[in-house]
Automatic annotation (TrEMBL):
Pfam (any one): His_Phos_1
Protein name: Histidine phosphatase family protein
One GO location term (cellular component): cytoplasm
GO molecular function annotations of the record: phosphatase activity
Cited InterPro entries: His_Pase_superF_clade-1, His_PPase_superfam, PGM_Phosphatase
Gene3D superfamilies linked: Phosphoglycerate mutase-like
Active site: H9, E87
Ranges in a coiled coil: none
Lineage, uppermost ranks: Bacteria, Bacillati, Bacillota, Bacilli, Lactobacillales
CDD domains (alphabetical): HP_PGM_like
Length: 230
């Protein structure tokens, strides 16, 4: 059985000012870096060693992974990037303010179509209103996400890995969980640096904790104690 520790990247500049990041990219802020250092220290305190590491090919996930591996003392393990676990592409709305997209354009589309805001409806609505022609249909988006994570888990299983770490994005992680648990409400508000714990055995995913912040809390306590010592 493979334990999968699926992490949302650290807080970025666009996260801080409420912009839809998508396939555009901004670096972690100082606060974002600190949160991921906390996470790494939390993993270290729990003596978690990873056999494999994957992230999307976005700068913010690569930066996050570097901090995690360093501060959890897991540097040097096999690590690859995979574009299939990127964030959703918001097309011509990439980099725009969240409010313009999620509170403006999309609600108008939903009112016109009379659809509830499922992930499928959101993805197809973005595709419909994207003037750049970059956004993905739900079929394309959900397919790449599920295939990407499945291939990573299969590889880990074949290599006999016990623990693997993956760094991805908020809506991508939430989409994966919804695809694995279609009868449950979709996850909301996955915090930066949160950990979603999955297992993979006999080609099957099981979901345990979604958006767990306990590792960060452990690391935060360690950092504050170090600060107090000085």
């Amino acid at each position: 059985m493979v334990n999968i520790y699926l992490v949302r990247h650290g807080k970025t500049m666009f996260n801080t000012i409420g912009r839809a990041q998508g396939w555009s990219d901004t670096p972690l802020t100082k606060e974002g870096e600190r949160g991921i250092i906390e996470l790494g220290l939390g993993f270290k305190a729990k003596a978690l060693t990873f056999d494999l590491a994957f992230s999307s090919d976005s700068g913010r996930t690569i930066q996050t992974m570097g901090l995690i591996l360093k501060h959890s003392e897991n540097e040097g393990i096999p690590y690859r990037f995979d574009p299939r676990i990127r964030e959703w592409c918001f097309g011509s709305f990439d980099g725009g303010y969240d409010g313009e997209l999620f509170d403006g354009v999309l609600p108008r589309v939903f009112v016109e179509n009379g659809e509830e805001q499922s992930f499928e409806a959101i993805a197809n609505a973005i595709y419909e209103v994207d003037t750049a022609g970059w956004a993905e249909t739900w079929e394309t988006l959900s397919g790449r996400i599920l295939n990407g994570f499945s291939d990573m888990a299969k590889e880990a299983q074949e290599k006999g890995a016990k623990n693997m770490i993956i760094v991805s994005h908020g809506m991508t992680i939430a989409t994966l969980i919804k695809l694995l648990q279609p009868d449950k409400p979709r996850p909301h508000g996955l915090d930066n640096g949160s950990v979603t714990h999955l297992t993979y055995e006999n080609d099957h995913f099981s979901v345990f904790k979604v958006g767990d912040m306990s590792y960060r809390e452990i690391g935060k306590k360690i950092m504050s104690e170090k600060h107090d010592d000085h």
